[in-house]
Amino acid sequence: MIAAYIDEIIMFCAGLWMTSVGFGYLPLPGHSANRPLVRHFKWMGPLPLVIAIVLAAAS
Question: Structure pTM?
Answer without folding.
Answer: 0.81
